[in-house]
From TrEMBL:
Keywords: Methyltransferase, Plasmid, Restriction system, S-adenosyl-L-methionine, Transferase. InterPro entries: C5-Methyltransferase (IPR050390), C5_MeTfrase (IPR001525), SAM-dependent_MTases_sf (IPR029063). Residues 309-325 have a biased composition (Polar residues). This is DNA (cytosine-5-)-methyltransferase. GO terms for biological process: DNA restriction-modification system; methylation; negative regulation of gene expression via chromosomal CpG island methylation. Pfam families: DNA_methylase (PF00145). GO terms for molecular function: DNA (cytosine-5-)-methyltransferase activity; DNA binding. Its EC number is 2.1.1.37. Residues 309-332 are annotated as: Disordered.
């Protein structure tokens, strides 16, 4: 019989918790030590954004968010450009003590805003009073929390962690000095490093290098905190392959919409090689490239827009007609029916009369981020997910799941009167011309003589039988009584320049003038839509959807209420910002595991243990240089 395990919970409070990525991770942390199973009980997640707080509780399934503005008055004025309203008050240590449910958390996690410290923000803006005020939250939030615990609880948290971007070591060097001095004052041993890869900590599908401070209170936690075991990075394709197809908002939710980009942006994406970025556009020989429309071949023929149509037959419908019933319409911009284009050299096979591609050149400038328009390879880890819009980060992928090259004989039907094609090993109807138009209906004993019989209107009818089926009895007649002519407008094609005809209840191409001679060409450079352009490597270079970015950040595919993952109360651009600012759940879970282990060992009095694992909070260590994304 297995020994009984006691569940023991350690408390955690989060500052600047956002939409709950870190909260989800720490809620998932579990450690077994000394016959106890240790986990975290979340006291609160504090954030100033009410929409972020609302989504935090929606995602985590627990009402632990607290909406609280931690700005000092001068910070509020500098950030908003005006004085706060009369009802606004600065948060006090007493307010935080109430948010902490009147107890000192065992673990305090802080992820203050990093926008002013990130390399994505131009240096001039980063130096402004507005962003300096935002940056000061790194110090002020921590100071408020320590004062609340010390003044009202008589002690401070056993472990404190602060997460931010690596460039804080340069743009926020003075802030880090204040933070280190503050932590040492309260009795903490401090590790400050900018080279933590949350991708390796959590085994993610992205490289996410981050700055982390880990501080342990030497009196409460005299034992070291071990560094999480590094995991191999997954490829971005490993994360995306099992997700709904991009644009399928039914399965992936509203965040799975494809971005409607300008046509010239789609062109640029198609010309950037997988793994490259905007700088590769400078080497593209775009004057010798063309965009060629590539219609499908074989059965269910799709007519070319500029060619004459085949004969319109009476049995009009895909799969039941020997005439053309489909057209390759280059105008469609609907997400469920994408026009397919292909980039190919001008001297290659294909329609050389297609339109020239848009000029892809982007001018060099010092403030342009290196990952602009970057195309991620499907089999490699994704770059760091940021909160910025498309065009500023590596938010595009060379998606290899698009396969438009069928064998020329796929679903081929051979003519009875002609020589058969080569018999191949892949002798299936979908791979070779393995079907034949057979005109023979073999006679056999027992076959009823009236099968498919066509009766003459001038002769007596055959016996009426109980088998009322056109193929089993004489149920057909050559009726000469059809003397009417189709009404005006049947199969009518209207002129683009003229007023449209009356829309009737039978507005169908074979019943009224429900067709149009549409002269519009391939989209213009500034036309927005979703266009599928197959790059020269055979993949579709497309933007990642917001839903896919959330999955790279380890958010759950579905909310606790069963809906696909989504954020409410915000536009898509803001949703991307929330997702990019979040701490990946799997990384937070692994970091929470080592913190739980250290707290459990300290509680058990086990202050020394042998381990192969790296020590996280060493007494002194050489700080590596900052890595900037």
């Amino acid at each position: 019989m297995a020994p009984f395990k006691v569940n023991t919970q350690k408390t955690i409070a989060l500052l600047f918790g956002g939409i709950g990525g870190a909260t989800l991770g720490y809620m998932s942390s579990r450690v077994e030590y000394g016959g106890h199973i240790h986990s975290f009980n979340v006291l609160c997640s504090i954030d100033s954004d009410p929409v972020a707080c609302m989504n935090h509780d929606l995602i985590t399934g627990e009402p632990t968010s607290v909406c609280m503005d931690l700005f000092k008055r001068w910070q509020y004025t500098a950030w908003h450009g005006c004085a706060p309203p009369p009802e606004w008050q600065e948060v006090t240590p007493a307010d935080l003590w109430k948010a902490f449910q009147y107890q000192v958390p065992d673990f305090l996690f802080s992820s203050p805003p990093c926008k002013g410290l990130s390399g994505l923000l131009p240096n001039e803006k980063a130096k402004s009073d507005k962003y300096q005020a935002l940056n000061y939250l790194t110090v002020h939030g921590l100071e408020l929390a320590l004062r609340a615990c010390d003044e009202y609880g008589g002690k401070v948290p056993g472990v404190i962690q602060l997460e931010n971007v690596p460039r804080i070591t340069t743009r926020g060097a003075s802030l880090l000095k204040q933070i280190k001095k503050l932590l040492i004052k309260y009795g903490y041993a401090v590790s400050i490093r900018p080279d933590h890869n949350l991708g390796e900590i959590g085994g993610l599908g992205q490289n996410r290098v981050r700055f982390l401070i880990m501080a342990r209170h030497e009196t409460q936690v005299p034992n070291f905190i071990e560094y999480p075991e590094k995991k191999p990075l997954r490829s971005i394709g490993d994360v995306l392959k099992d997700l709904p197809y991009p644009g399928d908002v039914g399965a992936g939710g509203p965040l799975h919409r494809l971005s409607k980009l300008q046509f010239k942006t789609w062109m640029r994406l198609a010309l950037i090689p997988a793994g490259g970025d905007w700088r590769d556009l400078q080497t593209v020989d775009y004057q010798n490239l063309r965009v060629m429309h590539e219609p499908r071949r074989g059965a269910f023929e799709v007519a070319a827009w500029e060619n004459t149509s085949r004969t319109v037959t009476s049995s009009s419908g895909p799969g039941q007609s020997n005439g053309v019933t489909s057209v390759a319409d280059p105008r469609s911009q609907h997400e469920d029916h994408l026009p397919v284009f292909r980039v190919q050299p001008a001297g290659g096979a294909g329609d050389l009369q297609s339109a020239d591609i848009a000029n892809p050149n982007l001018s060099e400038r010092s403030s342009r981020h290196a990952a602009t328009y970057r195309i991620v390879r499907m089999h490699e880890p994704a770059p760091c997910v940021t909160g910025t819009r498309f065009g500023s980060g590596a938010l595009a992928i060379a998606d290899m799941r698009v396969n438009t090259k069928l064998m020329p004989d796929s679903y081929g039907v051979q003519d009875w009167e002609e020589t058969a094609k080569t018999v191949r090993s892949a002798n299936r109807t979908m791979q070779a011309a393995a079907a034949v138009a057979d005109p023979c209906i073999k006679d056999r004993p027992g076959r009823y003589t009236d099968k498919f019989r066509m009766q003459d209107a001038g002769l007596p009818a055959a016996t009426v039988t109980g088998v009322t089926d056109v193929q089993s009895g004489a149920q057909l007649i050559a009726d000469p009584a059809l003397g009417n002519s189709p009404r005006s407008g049947t199969f009518g094609v209207q002129d683009w320049q003229e007023t449209g005809k009356t829309v009737t209840g039978s507005a169908d191409v074979h019943a009224s003038a429900a067709a149009i001679a549409d002269p519009r060409p391939i989209p213009q450079d500034t036309d927005r839509g979703v266009y599928m352009i197959i790059a020269e490597d055979g993949t579709w270079h497309r933007p990642l959807t917001t839903y896919e970015l959330a999955m790279l950040q380890c958010f759950p595919a579905h909310l606790p209420d069963g809906r696909p993952f989504q954020l409410i109360g915000c536009a898509d651009a803001k949703a991307r910002e929330y997702i990019g600012n979040a701490v990946p759940k799997d990384s937070a879970m692994e970091m929470g595991n080592v913190v739980l282990l250290a707290l459990a060992q300290a509680e058990a009095g086990d202050h020394f243990s042998m381990s192969w694992n790296e020590v996280w909070v060493a007494p002194e260590e050489n700080q590596p240089e900052a890595m900037v994304h």
